[in-house]
Design brief:
The structure holds two protein chains of two kinds. By secondary structure, chain A is mostly beta strands. Chain A contains no helices and eleven strands. In chain A, the strands form two sheets. In chain A, strands 2, 4, 5, 6, 9, 10 and 11 form a seven-stranded mixed sheet that branches. By secondary structure, chain B is mostly beta strands. Chain B is built from no helices and eleven strands. In chain B, strands 2, 4, 5, 9, 10 and 11 form a six-stranded mixed sheet that branches. In chain B, strands 1-3-8-7-6 form a five-stranded antiparallel sheet, with no helix packed on it. The radius of gyration of chain B is 13 Å and the shape is globular. Classes of the chains: A mainly beta, B mainly beta. At the A-B interface, β5, β9 and β10 of A face β4, β5 and β9 of B.
Chain lengths: ~110, ~110
């Protein structure tokens, strides 16, 4: 089975900090995605990547950036964390037949 | 713009009941539809994937159907159990590797 691993289950960061959320998949998938999930708003796409060093903005990219230096790793970066970025962050990957999600990172910005 | 709606938002049933969760989407030009389960505070677990050329998929007590022309999918759960309590999410994509568009989910509670 494909495994998508998010390095942290829970994170607490201070306003203004630079935050890195890491995601690793073990099945050589080309496509990786970052979503955030908020009550009442559902899952919204932040960024995605079709290949190494390639990235595309999703629906809500403001305040975020991403890095994909290796095929298996897709990092989400909060350049200067703000309280409105408190959320559940979910990473996913696919090779074109179904998506596999990680277990999520619950980020709290105080 | 694709929109996905799930009805009802919440459902409470007694153990043993058969139930149906509904998902509708506005743009029928989908590549596939996927049903997920999410337990509180956890990630998404894939339940069933239906490609656009398929009409249904089955896994154990779960059966998902797809009617592309009407923009609808249903997830049927037979003989529900308390362990089925979770939020069920439906998502569609326009291409095999394109982004998923999600509904907001149906929160299911199965009472012992």
């Amino acid at each position: 089975d494909v495994k998508v691993t998010q390095s942290s289950r829970y994170l607490v960061k201070r306003t203004g900090e630079k935050v890195f959320l890491e995601c690793v998949q073990d099945m050589d998938h080309e496509n990786m995605f970052w979503y955030r999930q908020d009550p009442g708003l559902g899952l919204r796409l932040i960024y995605f990547s079709y290949d190494v060093k390639m990235k595309e903005k999703g629906d809500i990219p403001e305040g975020y950036s991403v890095s994909r230096e290796k095929k298996e790793r897709f990092s989400l970066i909060l350049e200067s964390a703000s309280t409105n970025q408190t959320s559940m962050y979910l990473c996913a990957s696919t090779w074109g037949y179904g998506y596999t999600f990680g277990s999520g990172t619950r980020l709290t910005v105080v | 713009k694709q929109e996905v709606t799930q009805i009802p938002a919440a459902l409470s049933v007694p153990e043993g009941e058969n139930l149906v969760l509904n998902c509708s989407f506005t743009d029928s030009a989908i590549y596939n539809l996927q049903w997920f389960r999410q337990d509180p505070g956890k990630g998404l677990t894939s339940l069933l994937l239906i490609q656009s050329s398929q009409r249904e998929q089955t896994s154990g007590r779960l059966n998902a159907s797809l009617d592309k022309s009407s923009g609808r999918s249903t997830l049927y759960i037979a003989a529900s159990q308390p362990g089925d309590s979770a939020t069920y999410l439906c998502a569609v994509s326009r291409g095999g590797s394109e982004k998923l568009v999600f509904g907001k989910g149906t929160k299911l509670t199965v009472n012992p």
